[in-house]
């Protein structure tokens, strides 16, 4: 859904000083990538590869799988839409609250959709199950052995496990081996989060060749542009410059949680760098406007996630100083009610 | 179809000195755009607009239509797939030989497809008609009044008129007014050809709001990346630096034709900068390999266009000097048979 998203920085760009609305740390040094792209010059003068096979081969090598087990897409979003298309008219279960695109892709491809809230509700009649791990917006990671058991107990159901945020997780997510030894699970991933390049639109899926071949037969050519391909090859080659300290970010998120709880805000436990919170009064929409106006801070109004309310919002831990500013601002907003 | 295309420069990049395989002139100065993008810096650190509305608004202003009458897509290709999706299970007529994607988009969305070779074969039972104007690969432009009459004679049929190459046409193509006063025609366009940026993937459609709204309801978010949006806004603002002399290019294409005909090659009359040719013997595939090996010249083997043969190939006029080199090379190849 085009308007169902969070990172709406583009609406407020000039007013924003700190962006907590994204679930990605914002302090990252992109100078190497910028220099590389400047050197590459007018690469947009020629068509990109119809399918970004060069990036698929690189990822296959990094993950030690065959290139047939990797499909690189225009963000993980294109993979989501292709998966829904490949299983059109299917019966999908989506574990909510979660990323909005599973539901929209299912609608576009005529699935009947059942929203569920735990692994226990999955049935053999579900042709697909969609889940996000760590989950957006809650930051929670599924207990790995339990998730694998459920996957194995429903061999005719295709599980889409979106691990876009795995770089920020302090708990074990599914490994490539967990995926590759099974026939009914596709992992989604993205360069967006790990490399802080959401504007480039590079995602990928790893899974059984039979499923990915169906996606290839449905995809349009040239969906990933030249610059995204060039950047992806550079980033994968230079990934050592983009390592996040997940434990540190998790600690900072926990500190944010503690402070927020101290202000009477209800906060979910999180397993990564972002967290879902619920205001004791007021609405997230009003808090969001106030924070933009008074502090140049952008948060994610989470009220448009399935099953959440007008009081829910999401923030990702940023630098310590920025986190302190957020707490100060929240304190001021809350005390204005008293 | 992922492998059904021409501009496969990426396969041979290091060997190619002159690229005749694309239908776009290659000599263009992109320094302004490169400087602009370098100044823009790490714009990929944030999500792009979910839909590229800033570019839609700019195009709407330039074309003097409402923003609701323009949809900006990941190349015209995304618009083609969305149109086929919006009319899924339909009955499509495609005037061939032509750009391969109409047929592939129709296949992916379960159309029954009839290949026709002229406007005379269109019937009221066709839910959609797809045509390219000027046509790729023939370079021919439909006689405008005749085309409009056919469109008006089939009011229940949606006509998709792809004018991606209109900047290179010496004949009148459909105008925005021709499109806007009708309810059954959608024009496709692209920045690819006019601005020589096929690697960026920016296309658009202009047409009735009711049809475009259906496309918007089916599209995925963020399909056009940040850099493509930034570049599109720059290019549209600076279009005066990217004006082609269509008459000059057409003259050069005609001169190429004359020379090729003198070598016994059959050449279609063209209304723009590229042309379709047929060898008197041998195959285009073999000619292509030979040209790469001996001259670093890339041509478009056109044998995979519907209704064409192993002897067909397509070239676009490049600089005079480059055109002379092509003729010299063709002469050498042909005389090697004698």
Describe this structure as you would to a colleague.
The structure is a homodimer of 338-residue chains. Chain A is α/β, with parallel strands linked by helices. Helices cover 39% and strands 15% of the residues of chain A. The first copy, chain A, contains 13 helices and 13 strands. The first copy, chain A, has helices at residues 9-12, 31-40, 53-63, 75-86, 101-108, 144-153, 176-180, 191-194, 209-218, 226-237, 246-262, 284-295, 320-335; strands at 18-19, 70-73, 91-95, 112-116, 128-132, 158-162, 185-190, 203-206, 266-267, 274-278, 297-298, 300-301, 312-316. A seven-stranded mixed β-sheet of chain A has the order 2-8-7-6-5-3-4, with helices on both faces. A four-stranded antiparallel β-sheet of chain A has the order 9-10-13-12. In chain A, strands 1-11 form a two-stranded parallel sheet. The longest helix of chain A has 17 residues, at 246-262. Chains A and B meet through helix 2, helix 4, helix 5, helix 9 and helix 10 of A and helix 2, helix 4, helix 5, helix 9 and helix 10 of B.
């Amino acid at each position: 859904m085009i308007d169902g998203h969070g990172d709406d920085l583009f609406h407020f760009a000039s007013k924003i000083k700190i962006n907590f609305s994204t679930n990605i740390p914002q302090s990252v040094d992109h100078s190497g990538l910028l220099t590389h792209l400047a050197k590459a010059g007018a690469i947009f003068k020629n068509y990109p590869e119809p399918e970004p096979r060069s990036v698929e081969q690189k990822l296959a090598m990094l993950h030690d799988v065959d290139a047939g087990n990797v499909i690189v897409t225009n963000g993980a979003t294109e993979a989501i839409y292709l998966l829904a298309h490949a299983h059109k008219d299917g019966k999908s279960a989506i574990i909510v609250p979660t990323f909005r695109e599973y539901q929209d892709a299912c609608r576009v491809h005529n699935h009947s959709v059942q929203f569920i809230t735990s692994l226990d509700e999955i049935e053999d009649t579900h042709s697909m199950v969609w889940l996000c791990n760590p989950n957006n917006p809650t930051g929670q990671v599924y207990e790995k052995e339990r998730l694998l058991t459920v996957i194995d107990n429903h061999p005719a159901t295709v599980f889409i496990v979106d691990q876009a945020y795995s770089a920020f997780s302090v708990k074990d997510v599914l490994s490539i081996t967990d995926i590759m030894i099974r026939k009914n699970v596709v992992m989604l991933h993205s360069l967006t989060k790990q490399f802080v390049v959401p504007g480039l639109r590079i995602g990928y899926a790893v899974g059984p060749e039979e499923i990915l071949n169906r996606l290839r037969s449905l995809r349009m050519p040239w969906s990933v542009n030249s610059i995204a391909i060039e950047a992806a090859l550079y980033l994968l080659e230079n990934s050592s410059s983009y390592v996040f300290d997940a434990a540190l970010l998790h600690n900072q998120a926990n500190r944010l949680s503690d402070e927020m709880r101290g202000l009477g805000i209800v906060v979910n436990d999180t397993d990564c760098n972002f967290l879902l919170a619920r205001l004791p009064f007021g609405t997230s929409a009003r808090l969001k406007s106030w924070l933009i106006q008074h502090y140049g801070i952008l948060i994610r109004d989470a009220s448009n996630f399935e099953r959440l309310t007008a009081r829910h919002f999401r923030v990702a831990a940023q630098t310590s100083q920025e986190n302190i500013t957020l707490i100060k601002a929240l304190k001021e907003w809350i005390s204005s009610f008293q």
